[in-house]
Amino acid sequence: MSSMSQDSEEFISAFNGSFTSALRWPQLDQLWSAVLAQAEEGWYIYAIGEVLPDRPVSVKDLERFVDEMDDFLHREHDETYCGIVYADDLKKPDFIKIYDPHNLGVSCGFSHNPPLPGWVLSKIVPCDIPSTRVLPNNRRRWWSRIFS
Fold this sequence. Notes:
- By secondary structure, the protein is α+β, with helices and mostly antiparallel strands.
- Helix content is 34%, strand content 11%.
- Helix 2 packs antiparallel against helix 3.
- The longest helix has 18 residues.
């Protein structure tokens, strides 16, 4: 018998699935709109390496997260393109990976140890994704402030 729960298996399968990048900033805007259009469907927000959420966030908390994350990405990823947010479907997402602009690893090409995303938005109950990266204190404070 597997020691991994069905929810965990579903999460890991989705985590390792196929993703498309919101390459341009307008694509990210459209992705955020798609997320907020589905706000009532129950989104989990998981910061890799932090405590797992035990329930979906409220619509209000999802809206605040999207606003804060969008501001954060524009401020910290000072590029003419986005390219660090990936969704299973850009028009009707169920699973989104957001990479920390300061922990991108190999910027192009292939890596046997690609960096983990900093955050995951998912309609699936998340399971722990072990990370060896220590979240810097400024990121930890920022994350705590969003939901305080």
